[in-house]
Specification:
Chains A, B, C: Keywords: Glycosidase, Hydrolase. The structure is a homotrimer. Chain A is built from 17 helices and 27 strands. The model of chain A has no long low-confidence stretch (mean pLDDT 97). Chain A is of the alpha/beta class. Chain A has four domains: 10-156 and 225-386, TIM Barrel (Alpha-Beta Barrel); 158-219; 399-605, Class I glutamine amidotransferase (GATase) domain (Rossmann fold), CATH 3.40.50.880; 617-673, Golgi alpha-mannosidase II (Immunoglobulin-like, Sandwich), CATH 2.60.40.1180. Chain A is globular and about 75 Å long. In chain A, the strands form four sheets. In chain A, strands 12, 13, 14, 15, 16, 17, 18, 19, 20, 21 and 22 form an eleven-stranded mixed beta sheet that branches. In chain A, strands 7-4-3-2-1-11-10-9-8 form a nine-stranded parallel beta sheet, covered by helices on one side. Helices cover 30% and strands 22% of the residues of chain A. In chain A, helix 6 (158-172) packs across helix 8, helix 8 runs antiparallel to helix 13 and helix 14 crosses helix 17 (591-604). The interface between A and C is large, with 55 and 59 residues.
């Protein structure tokens, strides 16, 4: 439980009373009550208000808000306010603003504009966090700390350059080691002095955001930047912890956000929280996968849904409204996949600046007589009825999909073999094939304990980090099923190729080697032709993007390419290794293949679907003290039904016993207990 | 009349004898005479020639040109020459060049490169204007002053930053007022000192040209920049007026040019002039609308067509030739819509640099035996025959369409709800629907006196400035018909939302409120379904981009949405208000709907089409001393005919009496008097 | 012969032993031997290794490599290593790095980053070249010098600005001459002091890479930059020659690379060498044309194929594998068109940085048991068998196509008439029409002696440089056939229009003048309609992009436009001039027209195809001491046949006599001698 002060699914969201005149506050109180809101995230952007100059701290407005909220039965997720530094600070200490990747010194403006390696910024931000913790640590409204906001973006200042050199010294010890790791003999880039190293930017090695001449330095800079921002977070964390010993601390993450290694970050978060902003055309399974990833950051621990919009966004190209029922449906999707909170950005729509067209519980009309408010209030009532029953419930997936930020960076930085390869999309193809069959999945990091799973899938595991191959081998040795694909096992953590034949360290496990990698032009495809019928798989399936030209060593060939000069070479292989099996998929297959293939693997392992249900139903399950809670979410516009066999099952939302045919209304939700 | 020295439609254009050797001038004289040219715009880019260094002014070449032209019967529109500053000035006073939106200090080059807030630039440019006025104020050739050239572009220098702060102080008085207006509590951007304010650029709040974090500061910067450039113009204007008391002063505008608020500028122009550069695929009605806008800048006062090309442009992607007859046709289009001059850029094609492939009366061949020259000379003869008859004639439109630059800026700066919304395109949809029915329109600004009109249409009036709602109410109260659309009445002049329900201040007038605004994805559409047949309207019409979800208060619902979850909600409403009616169109409809709808409104007000004519005929009318002049312009490649009922009508170009069926040849023009 | 030490087609490529541990070298030796490799290009990026600081030069590793290679029977193409400067140099002398076109000072990184006008860079680079020459001039392995690597890119530093002013003073003598050449009276850009001139960049006159306000300065800057880089090359050349008197010196060019005038460069290369990187979808005729251009740089002298990939590239969007046989096929394509070497980039794939996915003879697997190695080794054996027989053989084309870099720059810098015009594409259309008919072509520069040819084709000869028109006239006078097209003869070498009627200086020769130039919108086309059947031409052919509206003077009209207002005006003309004919094609025709037209011209001149062969066969011929070698290259996936009439012909690769039907296998090669 995040905080036992409030033993239910928290409901509420971002609240910015400082943007409003006091007469509005009373109306806020009334409307929050009507909507069943019990948590407000406050102070996210209040730095300039609390600290109007270098030497003054004024907590009076915040005191008032904390007290008022508490009086009205609302708990507080208290932000440290460092999401954007004050204008006076940028003027007095220019070093606090960033330099961008184009080498341009930024001036005051926006957010994500604080130089993470500015000593001034670090001092001021952690000092503020400490003062807040000292003041509010015992406030009865306080239930969680929210450090800064949506950390992100990179910096290219001289402060970061100097810090980068120090980070490199610590990492490599000697320039020789660094020169080897970056292969600087290529293009004669050998460094003879640490001071010769300049950070990689458009002025040095990079262009177009993810193109680089030297993968080594660019990869390290991403690690370093993720680390620099994490240090800023940790400084605030420590400053809070000095005073506030027990209240959980988090910062809101952003799903598959590219620039930060969230598996590294999660180690320092008491609870993961994140902001979920799908658009009208985001695949439902993509949102599901993202929730599962956020749950996986801390090995299955429930997380906070920190932000979602009640109605529409402002920053998408086309900000469609959430259709009736969809806000509730997507809220339960989060809960089904591990969220113990349902929080919005925002409670009241702002009157000006760039987020004024972002949805809110209280819209510009200002009253409760809106569709959005009614839907929010209905969900608020429902969550009050649900109480704490689902809190802390966990998934019990036997299938894991591996996702790794460093692998992603390395893949995106790669020059060749193809620009068509998108790591997140490839991972999603595998997730979606399982999702469509209602099979539970955990999204796991490269350091996760694999022994909890029956099947581990590692799509496009281009970079194999130290120790992983041995752990994968042990997993399979003991009976596990391991799956990986084309363009895997290519490089080590420095992006240096493992020589001697791809997939390098995974070669013994997979029993194959890849001689060449063909990149297909747009419009080109090949086929995966099954050697023989294998349960759900038979005949031929389209594949594309890349085709590894592989040779089996110990592995058995299950399918072969159907065309081009490598027609007849293996396209799908399996290697028996100890008690388990390791599969290699040599190209990027279509959905039909993946559903059949993964269905077969699950059948082999007696992994059952959560439910037999038609397309359009999403199924997910949480388990608490042995009791399963099966979520059925209907994402379509018409009622759907499914059969459940067992007796003694109740619908948690209606209380009624359910048996035989379960009807799930359009955009509806059933939570079946038992 | 612009200047009674030359009481006819002026004919000529830009002339740059300084680019040529003297032996060419005699040939110019001969060819101008052949072409019937009587006005030359000179000295547009002569600053470097007249002022070769800081202390020297040399007018000898200009003296010679003025005298020569006058001797040859050609009057002069005399430019102040400040369209581009000299190279020596940029070298000696680097402050005169601009800093761009990316923060880059520009060096010498191009035009639109003078820092409008450079004291040096202001001093030198107004001094030059003054010296020219002093010298030539009584020259017999002089008929108009032409200040600088096509003012445009923004500057991001420190001089502009300092001036911006002063402008803000004058506008807001206190930082509290400014902080409120910009809603700086959002993202903690509160300013405690004027010096903390930095101008909005890619280094602060903006990106991609029209994206911003803070609409308030970005909107004010556009106002400030338009104002800064206008100040430069006014300094030259005042310097001229000190000596030259009566000769009209103008600067050439550019139609719907985005960066300057031409309604504000027009207050300081004695006569509006503009440069008309449609391409082969520009809709004819778009050019017509632009002429009408230029006429509307000074409430209907005739304007100068300052530039058009006789044949082709150079700066378009595909610079097609004007087909035979088109130059004449488009010249009369300008005249039909209020132009009292027909001027070209340029009289002789330049031999080098970026405009050498821009058309001219005298092409590179250098003689009169070209199609282009022949067409120019024919028009010259015709305009001599026309004499002064049409001068000062006015339109008598009863329908006005409102266009407002500040609304446009605010819409383009908006973050959400959709990138598909383009203000000028939306305005054009309404214009085009009236144009297709040969109904006269005035394009008017937000400050225009509405009582002159029967119908006022204000598409997407997102920003409602102080006083406008009351004037609109008074207009309708007195019997007027007012039309506005989705996404109107949202914000005030600071881009702060008018709370309590859209369309804010227009809500009483329209009798509806809008609860939500749905943005449609590309390819999506909805339908406007008529409640019942209403004259030209019945059944269902496609609509898209945005759909307001509105509720009627006092209004009557004329049509409803045909699909999606808001099927059945009002899509078209009318509110009886006093003696008049106010319509709200909740989405962006197709052309069929708009023609029917606007046709109905005109029928209700007994506003007749100028003529019953087929598509392809453009009709326009000017009236002078009670005599109407009906222009019929055939934009098609075949002859078209139309019927006119009344007797006593003459064709002004042929002199013949016209009755019954009027034939308009392909690309032809008729001007029917009486 | 490039160097008679190795009297055969050289076989090998780039080799970077410094990137590898010594234990790998022995394996390199073994594998090179297996592959039949006899030349290694080394030291290309070794500057930082050889010169670890300002005062130290360490040749020990290079000594070892040279000796080892020689011991193993491998000759060395020795690079000067200045392809990228060391990091210490960039730190100690910031002037050595470039400033980019956006005005941004670059820091250390990448290659193409040395400021060509930095005195420090020039001193250090030529000093290194001299030291290498002094040390290795008599090394028995040395067969060629390779200066720097793939010179390219422009610089915008203050050093280049100062050097540009000096270059301009030398070119123009006086500012008056410069002001005239650049037509600076346009937009009042007159310079009164040399110091006022700033180099053209995004901060002054240019934008989007090839857009400019002043063609004159932008064109001169391209000349100056090509010249500056050439000066750097020549400083190294001279430093080498001081010691090494006879060994040929080259630098590797890049085909149609835009930024350098290779005809100017070739004057200073002892032998042309170039890097050939077609992709899977590059038209075969485009690669052929590029080889022919490289051969034409030194008037037909055989060239070095310095780089090609054995398998795939890394820097294309989709890096497809070379299909089986294609590496051999394309190697012989180079030889067929004048290459006397077949060299790869690279011999061993690098382990890290951006080229690790670039193909190599020794792939990451590290052994010889790969398809790529096997194909390389087979070709190695074949080239050993071929020996020196083909060396120094020449083409004997009677048709020349003119290509001129200055014309290309001017065309790309032109503002108008259309963005659709691409010079290289237009040239390729003509080349392809001849290629498809197996007619030999030489690609020649504007200074080439035309009298060697029967037919000279100069597509889109926009810029006619001094003396060319007279030489073209003399060529036709003497019986030659000259062809040019729309948008030719427009400007002189300063991009100043030749007044009086296009095509200016070519007008007497062509007997026509062009009055107007129409640019077609995308999707628009016109037709070339033959007046009467003329051999292979009859009826109507599509044309587009630009349409010149021309009038015949002395010329005869062979075809007319089929539509638009210029229907019936001449579209194809011929002018009898002395003993020859000059043709003008007024628009850009389709391939059918061009094949017919050029076929007709060849027939008129009794120029026979090399062979009657089906599409898919490429034919090329080299002649040595009167003996012809006919290459037949089958680019398709199936066997093709062709008939040869004469007797006494042998296949050089198989030794067998060939008569009657010649079979060319899929992707196969025949070299027919006799």
């Amino acid at each position: 439980m995040i905080n036992d002060k409030l033993p239910k699914i928290w409901y509420g969201g971002d609240y910015n009373p400082e943007q409003w005149e006091p007469e509005v506050w009373a109306e806020d109180d009334r409307l929050f009550r009507l909507a069943g809101i019990d948590v407000a995230t406050i102070n996210v952007f209040s730095w300039a208000m609390i600290q109007p100059d270098e030497h003054t701290y004024d907590f009076s407005a915040l005191d008032e808000t904390m007290d008022r909220l508490y009086r009205n039965g609302i708990y507080v997720c208290l932000a440290t306010g460092t999401g954007a530094h004050p204008a006076w600070m940028a003027r007095r200490y220019p070093e606090v603003t960033r330099v961008d990747a184009k080498g341009r010194k930024r001036k005051f403006g926006g957010r994500h504009n604080s130089n993470p390696n500015s000593a001034v910024y670090r001092t001021f931000s952690s000092r503020l966090a400490g003062k807040l913790a000292e003041r509010y640590k015992d406030h009865p409204a306080l239930v969680a700390w929210h450090v800064s906001n949506e950390y992100g973006g990179y910096d290219y200042s001289e402060q970061s350059e100097a810090a980068f050199r120090e980070w490199l010294k610590a990492r490599y010890g000697t320039l020789d080691a660094l020169n080897r790791a970056w292969n600087t003999r290529f293009w004669g880039h050998t460094f003879y002095d640490w001071e010769e190293i300049v950070l990689p930017s458009e002025l040095t090695e990079e262009w177009n955001g993810s193109r680089t001449n030297f993968q080594g330095i660019s990869l390290d800079y991403r690690r370093f930047m993720s680390h620099s921002l994490l240090e800023c977070y940790r400084l605030e964390y420590d400053a809070i912890r000095e005073h506030s010993k027990d209240v959980p601390i988090t910062t809101n993450l952003m799903g598959f956000y590219k620039e930060l290694d969230y598996f590294e970050w999660a180690k320092y978060l008491d609870v993961v929280s994140w902001d979920n902003y799908p658009s009208l055309d985001t695949p439902v399974s993509f949102t599901a996968m993202t929730h599962d990833l956020m749950r996986g950051l801390k090995s299955g621990q429930p997380f906070m849904l920190m932000e979602q919009t009640p109605s529409q966004q402002n920053w998408q190209k086309y900000n469609s409204l959430k259709r009736p029922g969809v806000m509730r449906l997507w809220s339960y999707q989060a809960v089904a996949r591990g969220a113990d909170t349902v929080l919005f950005f925002q409670l009241r729509r702002s009157v000006g600046a760039c987020e004024k067209f972002h949805g809110a519980v209280i819209e510009h009309a200002g009253h409760e007589h809106t569709r959005v408010f009614r839907e929010c209030a209905e969900l608020g009532r429902e969550l009050q009825l649900l109480g704490g029953e689902l809190l802390d419930a966990r998934s019990a997936a036997k299938v894991a999909i591996l996702f790794d930020w460093e692998n992603r960076w390395a893949l995106e930085l790669s020059s060749g073999p193809t620009v068509a390869l998108n790591y997140v999309n490839e991972v999603h193809k595998y997730y979606d094939a399982l999702f469509a069959q209602h099979i539970e999945v955990d999204m796991v990091g490269a350091e996760e304990d694999l022994t909890r799973y029956e099947i581990v899938i590692a799509p496009v595991l281009y970079m194999v980090k130290p120790g992983f191959a041995a752990r994968a081998e042990a997993f399979v040795q003991a009976g596990g099923t391991f799956v990986t694909t084309f363009f895997s096992g290519i490089v080590d953590e420095h992006d240096l190729v493992t020589l001697g034949g791809y997939p390098g360290p995974l070669r013994p496990l997979l029993g194959i080697w890849a001689e060449e990698i063909d990149a297909l032009l747009p419009g080109m495809s090949n086929q995966i032709v099954m050697e023989r019928e294998w349960k759900k798989l038979s005949g031929s399936y389209e594949c594309g993007i890349l085709c590894d030209l592989i040779h089996t060593e110990n592995a058995e060939t299950l399918a072969r390419y159907g065309s081009d000069f490598y027609q007849g070479m293996p396209a799908l292989t399996v290697n028996r290794f100890g008690e388990g099996k390791a599969y290699y998929i040599a190209s990027s297959p279509n959905a039909d293949f993946l559903q059949g293939f993964l269905g077969n693997l699950c059948a082999d392992k007696d992994i059952e679907p959560l439910v037999q249900a038609p397309q359009g139903i999403e199924a997910a399950r949480r388990i608490k003290n042995g009791t399963p809670y099966l979520f059925l979410l209907n994402h379509t516009g018409g009622e759907l039904t499914t059969e459940i066999g067992s007796a003694g099952i109740h619908d948690l939302l209606t209380g009624e016993e359910v048996t035989g045919t379960v009807r799930v209304p359009a955009k509806g939700v059933r939570i079946l207990k038992g």
